[in-house]
Write a structure and sequence with these properties.
By secondary structure, the protein is of the alpha/beta class. The protein is built from eleven helices and eight strands. The chain is 48% helix and 17% strand.
Length: 287
């Protein structure tokens, strides 16, 4: 009897350990921008699922269009895609983009309207619902916001993030947002504001290398490791709030070509021990 209790206790301990390890697995994300084009292809959902499996991707960011813009057929295809990915334990986030949602009024209201449309989609498709919202708001693209150190748009961007979070979290949706490294070069108050506005952010770490730059794969890995570590340290320097956003690193195919998988996996090796590290994300899916 005593031996069986010991065995049982060991099994419980092993299960708890396995769950704990699983919960610490980093995010491996993928952007899917041209959703209608992707879904129009034969076996689109299954092909995307197999790509995710082969690259160990566990969440996908799918460009979202409301029902009145997409039509019932496309909405049905999207729900089918979510269902297929969920069966393989791949989470799906609705990808929403804007260049001016940092500005209050019509632009902000338009973004929040899209968030409400995602929530309505989930209500119509409770068995194939989005898991989160993924924001791609880029005020830095407007001419008045260009230039190093020019962060005058940051308060409005933070307000937009908080407004989306206010709608999303009661609907059981997570929120993530893409950011450029410029945002991490602000002072501690600016970084505190940014990192406390959302639970997750994704740093778009582009143009460190190129496929034809003559550097070896080891050199590219070293450059990526140094840059990712530097920006991770820069983001959280002097900040002690335990509830700050965790950060993923986004890379794009044009920078690394056939070395993409290797470079992404090197991020896990470099940053996995950092408590602020969320994982990596691949920009973008192409068939």
């Amino acid at each position: 009897m005593r031996l069986s209790r010991i065995v049982f206790a060991l099994l419980v301990l092993l299960l708890s350990f396995s769950i704990s390890i699983g919960a610490q697995q980093p995010v491996h994300g993928l952007w899917v921008w041209k959703t209608p084009t992707v879904l129009a292809q034969p076996n689109a959902a299954e092909r995307l699922r197999e790509f995710c499996r082969s690259e160990h991707i566990n969440e996908v960011y799918v460009a979202f269009a409301a029902a009145e813009r997409a039509g019932p057929s496309e909405e049905s295809q999207l729900a089918g895609l979510i269902h297929v990915l969920h069966k393989s334990h791949i989470e799906v986030e609705a990808l929403l983009s804007s260049t001016d949602a940092d500005e209050p009024g019509k632009s902000r209201d338009k973004l929040l309207g899209h968030v409400r449309e995602v929530i309505a989609f989930n209500q119509r498709h409770s068995t194939a619902a989005f898991d989160g919202i993924h924001l791609d708001i880029e005020p830095q693209q407007r001419p008045e916001n260009k230039g190093p150190g020019n962060l005058k748009f940051l308060p409005g961007l933070v307000d937009a993030y908080r407004s989306v979070r206010h709608l999303a979290e009661p609907a059981h949706l997570t929120v993530n947002a893409d950011i450029q490294n410029k945002l991490l070069k602000g002072d501690s108050a600016q970084r505190q504001s940014l990192l406390s506005s959302l639970p997750r952010i994704t740093l778009m770490l582009y143009e460190l290398s190129s496929p034809n730059d003559g550097e070896s794969s080891a050199q590219k890995e070293d450059k990526l490791s140094d840059s990712a570590s530097r920006f991770m340290d820069l983001a959280y320097a002097g900040l002690t709030d335990p509830k700050l956003a965790r950060m993923a690193i986004g890379l794009r195919t044009p920078d690394y070509g056939p070395l993409m998988s290797q470079m992404l996996n090197s991020l896990d090796h470099t940053l996995r021990g950092n408590p602020h590290y969320l994982g990596w994300a691949w920009h973008q899916y192409s068939q």
